[in-house]
Design goal:
The structure holds 3 protein chains of 3 kinds. The longest helix of chain A is centred in the C-terminal third of the chain and has 54 residues. Chain A is mainly alpha-helical. Chain A starts with 7 loop residues before the first helix and ends in a 7-residue tail after the last helix. Chain A has a two-stranded parallel ribbon. Chain A is 76% helix and 3% strand. Chain A has one domain. Chain B is mostly helical. Helices cover 62% and strands 8% of the residues of chain B. Chain B has 5 helices and 3 strands. A 3-stranded antiparallel beta sheet of chain B has the order 1-3-2. The longest helix of chain B is centred in the C-terminal third of the chain and has 27 residues. The radius of gyration of chain B is 18 Å and the shape is elongated. Chain C is an alpha/beta fold. Chain C has 2 domains: 214 residues, 3-Layer(aba) Sandwich (Rossmann fold); 66 residues, Alpha-Beta Plaits (2-Layer Sandwich). Chain C is globular, with a radius of gyration of 22 Å. Classes of the chains: A mainly alpha, B mainly alpha, C alpha/beta.
Chain lengths: 235, 125, 293
């Protein structure tokens, strides 16, 4: 009997490696668009939105898509390679958390570089609600909510993808409705505004919003686990 | 299933006979390595068990012997043994029938020998 | 290492259709098992259960004495090769990278052997997987299946798309590598005539049930063709299980399933009937014939 070589840790490493490759493509693409938009629409001397605000929406949607693709692309692949559903689940969970952190860090770095370049060139970057650079507390809060919201988006995508895979289109549609509700809740809790139940942004204090978002993460985690733990691998 | 086998005899016997033929006509010499079971499976497209049965008989009769981890070899004196066995079989299968038939047709011994000589000549030509 | 398999009353249902119906069998380790069944017989469903791709709805299955479902040790040592062309469409990896990466997943994977095989199957190592032809994709899958040397190796019609010479190479490699590194191989097919010699054992399934299981030799030894005049054959075959009969003028030929006793053989000889063997292919075709065919 040989030891288990396809551990959750290894799956995390392999998956994360693959996801980072995709993410580098995505972020470069997004950065180029940002620069193009900024230079075309705003011009160097008018005020424009900072990179974090600009990317917040698109990178969260990117995570949602990766979440959906996890079931269609990565899951069958790893099952074919002899992984268990449980180890794949744990590996994916860890990889997606790492990915959320990585994306946040990269965007922060790019924001700082831009801020610095803008200051040097005398441009005026208008800071919206997603704010990394104005103060240290703003940085910490934005960092945390950025990571959490990206993770939640990933998990929502995962639920939708898994439900379609496991239970077909009817339940899949229901999972989309469920996903939209979760997106709305995320919008209330954190500074993500894809789906908004209220026209006015509700500013919950951090000691309420962060624990509540963690609860949402746990709920999504459990749902995904229930969906994957004995799912049939389609061939 | 391969068409090179006849249907009136078990296939493992036919496999055995084909190996014997190769030894008798010196395609396989004594002391040389004989084809492995696996090679025979692939050559004849006959399953492992059937091939093994034929080969095992040859090993039991001392025609082939196994060297552990190396393969199967033609035993010393294998050809002699086979020729002996074949001569006996020749007697049983052909000569006795020939003599019986000749007697029915009242062909004399001299005539038989003449006929054999003629057949051998034709065979050579 | 090689796995023994035991299935007891295993059933799989899709809504109201029973794909596998209380199937029981044992597969010995170190053997090549031919899994024969027609399209829709339940081959792939059964193999999915063995590979822990799905749970059986009833019954018990053990591989190496353990339940394979979500069993990390058994699952990493079980490789299931099936027609994967759809999945491979999205693989933008180079062949050589794919072949190298398998070492991450399979404990017994032999990379050097995989590259040797790639040469034999003439795979372009620097090409991307999705650019391969159908036959070459199958070859890549076959290479992975062989080089993983998994204690349970399942080939489910893994030759699809390969041309005849490539299939020959595949069969040859199965036999050669099996000799050096014995494992439990399940080879599922409905192309019996060109693969019958590979099998040590035969498991034939039909409409979700086990039709027969035995050594290849035993299975073949139960089939006969008997040819003679119409009258004689009808008399001879009266109490036998006749799978198929053909007539040409006054001559009749029947395929019989079951062992012939010495008496019956002698009777056939005396009556001047011609008795011959049946191939596994003939047996398969006629044993799995439906009523209306």
């Amino acid at each position: 009997m040989n030891s288990i070589i396809l551990t959750p840790k290894k799956i995390t490493r392999l998956l994360f490696g693959e996801q980072v490759k995709w993410t580098m493509w995505f972020l470069s693409f997004m950065f180029v668009i940002y620069i193009v938009v900024v230079s075309l629409v705003s011009g160097p001397h008018s005020s424009f939105v900072d990179l974090a605000s600009f990317s917040n929406g698109s990178s969260a949607i990117y995570m949602l898509v990766i979440g959906i693709l996890t079931t269609t692309v990565f899951f069958p692949y790893y099952m074919q390679q002899g992984a268990t559903r449980k180890n794949f689940f744990l590996g994916t969970m860890l990889a997606s958390a790492l990915l959320a952190i990585t994306i946040t860090v990269i965007i922060i770095l790019l924001s700082f570089i831009l801020q610095f370049a803008a200051g040097w060139a005398g441009w005026n970057i208008h800071t919206q609600e997603v704010d990394f650079t104005s103060s240290f507390s703003a940085f910490i809060y934005t960092f945390i909510s950025f990571v959490i919201s990206h993770l939640i988006y990933f998990l929502i995508g995962w639920v939708i993808g898994l439900t379609f895979y496991r239970a077909g289109w009817l339940y899949g549609m229901l999972s989309i409705a469920f996903g939209i509700i979760c997106l709305g809740i995320t919008g209330i809790l954190l500074e993500i505004t894809h789906i908004s139940f209220f026209t006015q942004q509700i500013n919950l204090p951090i000691f309420v919003s962060v624990p509540l978002s963690l609860v949402l993460i746990v709920i999504l985690f459990v749902i995904n686990h229930r969906l994957i733990k004995d799912v049939t691998v389609k061939i | 299933m391969s068409t090179q086998f006849r249907s009136d005899k078990p296939i493992f016997i036919q496999v055995r006979e084909q190996i014997e033929d190769q030894i008798v006509n010196d395609q396989l010499k004594e002391g040389e390595q004989a084809p492995s079971t696996n090679q025979l499976v692939q050559f004849y497209k006959i399953n492992h068990a059937t091939i093994s049965k034929g080969v095992t008989q040859l090993v039991d009769e001392g025609i082939l012997y196994k060297k552990r981890g190396v393969g199967m070899f033609v035993a010393d004196g294998a050809k002699q043994k086979l020729v002996q066995k074949r001569k006996q079989a020749f007697m049983d299968n052909y000569i006795i029938g020939l003599v019986q038939e000749a007697e029915k047709l009242r062909i004399t011994e001299e005539e038989i020998i003449d006929l054999i000589k003629r057949a051998r000549k034709e065979n050579k030509a | 290492m090689s796995y023994a398999i035991e299935a007891k009353d295993v059933s799989v249902k899709y809504k109201d259709f029973t794909a596998i119906n209380q199937v029981s069998f044992q597969l010995e380790p170190d053997k090549i098992h031919g899994l024969l069944g027609r399209n829709g017989a339940g081959k792939t469903t059964l193999l999915s259960v063995l590979a822990a791709f799905r749970k059986a709805d009833a019954g018990s299955l053990t591989i190496d004495g353990e339940n394979p479902f979500e069993n990390p040790g058994i699952m990493q040592n079980t490789i299931f090769i099936f027609d994967q062309h759809k999945d491979l469409e999205y693989s933008y990896e180079k062949i050589e990278d794919t072949l190298k990466s398998m070492a991450d997943f399979r404990p017994n994977y032999d990379e050097a052997y995989a590259f040797q095989l790639a040469k034999k199957f003439k795979l372009p190592l620097t090409k991307k997987v999705n650019q391969l032809s159908k036959g070459k994709k199958s070859a890549l899958q076959a290479i992975i299946g062989l080089a993983s040397r998994a204690p349970l190796t399942i080939f489910d019609e893994a030759y699809l798309g390969m041309d005849a010479p490539t299939r020959e190479i595949f069969y040859k490699e199965i036999l050669n590598d099996q000799e050096e590194h014995p494992r439990t191989i399940i080879f599922s097919t409905h192309l019996v005539s060109e693969t019958d010699y590979l099998f040590d054992e035969v498991l034939m399934i039909h409409q979700g049930k086990v039709l027969l299981q035995d050594t290849n030799e035993q299975v073949i030894s139960k089939g006969f063709s008997v040819t003679g005049s119409l009258k004689q054959i009808d008399a001879f075959a009266k109490d036998l299980e006749v799978l198929n009969s053909q007539m040409l003028g006054g001559t009749k030929s029947v395929m019989v399933y079951g062992e012939l006793s010495e008496q019956q053989k002698n009777a056939a000889n005396q009556a001047g009937l011609e008795v011959g063997p049946l191939s596994l292919h003939d047996l398969f075709v006629h044993l799995t014939k439906e009523e209306d065919e």
